[in-house]
Amino acid sequence: MKPEELYKELKKYEFGPFTGVADSVFGGFFNYLENLSENEYIPAPNEGLALAIAAGLYLAGKKPVILLQNAGIGNLINPQTSLNDLYKVKSLLMIGWRGNPNLPRDAPEHWLMGERTIDFLRLANIENKVFESLDDINWANDKLNYNNILALLINPGLIENYDKKYSPKYEMSRYEALEIIAEYTKDMIRFSTTAMPSRELYEIDDAEKNFYMIGSMGHIGAVALGTALEKKDKIIVLDGDGALLMHLGILSTIGNIKPKNLLHICLDNESYSSTGLQSTTSNTTNLDKVVLDCGYVNSKKVLTKNELENSLEDLLKLEGPNFLLVKVKPGNKEDIKRIDLMPEGITKRFMKAIK
User: Are 265 and 181 in contact, with CB atoms under 8 Å apart?
Assistant: First the structure.
């Protein structure tokens, strides 16, 4: 179905506004919503906060819809059980079902949640059904007379793409930035965030001291902090704006503990690259300034390759924690392959290499 048809059907039953975290399974719908009027779609940093935003919309008399990938179910379990369920706040979930066991096998990070998605929803008291046609919107509308929350599960291919137009504001691609970073940090311990940054680093400079995060969006800084506290080696964190915003509180923890050997690099393209270039909110958040208020020692922001090289040279010499915000244009390198290492293999070779 076309995104505009889905939107029209939802509005027929007065559903909306919409909030959530972008998902590639129905990325076209997110892109369509971004073109609508102000506040019709409210991007949330994580799924739990999306559910809380929706609760506020419901209290104001709306019928909110939360959009997410099934990997984000874990983030919304707490507000579902202690907010929606407790206060009888009504909302509709639309969930992209990655790793559906009835479909061809997906990437490893989706295997467990894909198999257990329905189990998790049932345990959280969320009635659900697979979304197959626009008639299911009527089903959801009727069910919400008796339930406080429902979920429609969306399989890949159900909702068509909707291309988003954008005008690049910055000269570097993320891939070009990573080529420079890889050169300056060669043989150092590197932690790279989920999705495209890890896949691009893997192609540019795979190394045994690289820890590639292929799931657990937003947690790379915390993982790197744990290792930085036990090692004297320089620790490099390669983060993304969407991932960093998802669990921004780690900045306060890093700034409080102050690991001197940590350089935190955020490759900020102001979008979710792997799901269809939907916008994050980093364009209105000065991450390079936020980290200083959180306790980081030094922070720089770069827009060009020359600035990136100079800043890396400086920050790698200074005691940290240090932060480097690298503004890059949206988009991914074409034909970038997935990491062909199994997660357990990444763990074993990384631990052996830094021992």
Answer: yes
